[in-house]
Design goal:
The structure holds two protein chains of two kinds.
Chain A (H helix, E strand, L loop, with lengths): L1 H8 L4 E5 L26 H14 L3 E5 L9 H10 L3 E6 L6 H10 L3 E6 L4 H8 L4 H14 L3 E8 L7 H11 L3 E6 L4 H5 L1 H4 L3 H17 L5 E5 L19 E4 L5 E2 L20 H7 L1 H5 L16 H4 L4 H8 L15 H8 L13
Parallel strand pairs in A: 1-2, 1-8, 2-3, 3-4, 4-5, 5-6, 6-7
Antiparallel strand pairs in A: 8-9
Helix pairs in contact in A: 2-3, 3-4
Chain B lengths: L19 E5 L4 E6 L2 E5 L1 H8 L7 H12 L3 H17 L6
Antiparallel strand pairs in B: 1-2, 2-3
Helix pairs in contact in B: 2-3
The chains are: A alpha/beta, B alpha+beta.
């Protein structure tokens, strides 16, 4: 079967592990699904440890311990140690709230190599309002300093939207002051809770254009001091993003309850069959699970993708976005200007309004 | 950009904590692992990066590579400088 051959040809590089959906923050752009897994449904320590060994055998090189807030797991240090012992490069993606300096030191001792801390703004009061948590900014700052003191690699992840897009320069300065080696300027992607809050998060086209130019300027200004990676604001783009580097091609995502997804938003596509690590090995899931084979390669594509010279470059864009905006997960991502549904994106990207956030809550 | 980078011969290049070179059967060769990033390294790049432990100076690394590969010194200095300066710019190497 062609899809099985493609699975063998492409070995995954990274595994995003959503250890829990519990999180003290309420960020309105959270990429988690609207229906969150409860604590009692979460995989146990032994299952995550088994998964790390299967991941390493499959060729996976890096794990990203994420959530929710991964520090909400009492066994986070054991989980990280097991990943390190399996030979995996271990990243922690944290809000910093709920992670004590004592536990951070234990994680460093266990083999953690890199910490990514999200920030919501460079102005503390605005940041705390976006996070829906008083005092979050101060705690992020303190933990970032501790990460650097322990000589762990630090990435600052600045999620950008209407309320903070004018302060990208200040957020990069903050990342530099904290000693980060890398900063992500991540324009909100409209999945999960961000889709619910789309109109209040959406920046104007003029703001997006200024932001893109500024990031280029900051890159050359800070060259060699800090790496600036950017997640592009795709509603305002001409071509779609190659979501996750191509479906079932480079990475996979494990939910708190053990479902394995080609990307973190994949459950938003109805009708796909996801397999669970409680019943299948990771190698079996990567190669044979119906969800992974649904959009692997190019055989599933329709026009205009199937005859597009960029089909192996952006793989038709984001399947979740195609489904959310057209109802057809095999359609071209309507972000693409060649998509017959592109007018939908143009119309939605023009709707930017002030209003209250719907905070992400259990 | 536009200027040729120069690395002092007494610099001691080293990979910082959180950047590691590993061999991966599944991915068919050497890879440099860094925060949320993976870079493939060809066998020559891997031989150079393996020597960046902080123990040897840049000058000693060049001597070692000239002996090992019996290649012209100028060519080796140029290639190694380009590789290491590129890694340093990406914060993957300390000089």
């Amino acid at each position: 079967m062609a899809t099985t051959a493609a699975a063998a040809a492409h070995r995954p590089l990274g595994l995003l592990a959503e250890l829990t959906h519990r999180c003290p923050l309420g960020c309105p752009y959270c990429s988690n699904p609207l229906r969150l897994d409860r604590a009692q449904a979460e995989l146990d320590t032994a299952t995550w440890s088994r998964l790390w060994r299967e991941a390493a055998a499959l060729g996976i090189l890096q794990v990203h311990l994420s959530g929710g807030e991964p520090a909400a797991r009492r066994d986070l240090v054991e989980i990280a140690a097991a990943a390190h012992d399996a030979g995996l490069y271990c990243n922690l993606i944290t809000s910093a709230v709920g992670l004590t300096t004592h536990r951070l030191a234990a994680l460093a001792e266990a083999g953690l190599e890199h910490v990514q801390i999200s920030i919501q703004d460079s102005i503390p009061a605005v940041a705390d309002h976006i996070a829906g948590y008083a005092g979050a900014f101060a705690r992020k700052r303190a933990l970032a300093e501790e990460v650097v003191r322990l000589k762990l690699q630090l990435t600052v992840n600045a999620v950008v939207h209407r309320a903070n897009i004018e302060r990208i320069g200040d957020m990069v300065d903050l990342a530099l002051a904290l000693g980060a080696s890398r900063v992500e300027i991540a324009h909100v992607q409209y999945h999960g809770w961000a889709l619910t809050n789309r109109a209040v998060l959406m920046p104007t086209r003029a703001q997006v254009e200024r932001a893109i130019a500024l990031v280029e300027e900051l890159r050359s200004r800070h060259r060699g001091r800090i790496v600036i990676d950017a997640v592009v604001p795709d509603y305002h783009a001409r071509y779609p993003k190659p979501c996750t580097g191509g479906w079932g091609r480079r990475s996979l995502n494990v939910t708190p309850s053990g479902k394995v997804l080609p990307c973190h938003a994949a459950e938003s596509i109805t009708g796909l069959e996801f397999w669970n690590v409680r019943e299948h090995s990771l190698a079996d899931i990567w190669t044979h699970s119906p969800a992974f084979n649904a959009f692997r390669g190019t055989a599933w594509m329709q026009q205009p993708c199937i005859s597009c010279p960029r089909r192996e470059q952006d793989f038709g864009g984001c399947r979740c976005q195609a489904f959310a905006l057209t109802g057809n997960a095999a359609a071209a991502d309507p972000v693409c200007h060649l998509s017959p549904a592109h007018a939908v994106v143009t119309a939605l990207s023009a709707v930017s309004e002030s209003g209250e956030y719907t905070y992400r809550r259990m | 950009m536009g200027t040729t980078p120069v690395i002092a011969s007494d610099a001691h290049p080293r990979l910082p904590r959180g950047v590691r070179l590993v061999h991966s059967e599944a991915h068919g060769g050497w890879v440099l692992l860094a925060p949320e990033r993976v870079f493939k390294a060809d066998s020559i790049a891997a031989e150079i990066i393996k020597r960046c432990t902080g123990a040897a100076s840049f000058g000693e690394i060049i001597e070692d590579l000239v002996r090992t590969y019996s290649a012209p010194r100028d060519k080796i200095v140029g290639d190694v400088t380009a590789l290491l300066a590129g890694l340093a710019e990406k914060r993957l190497l300390e000089l």
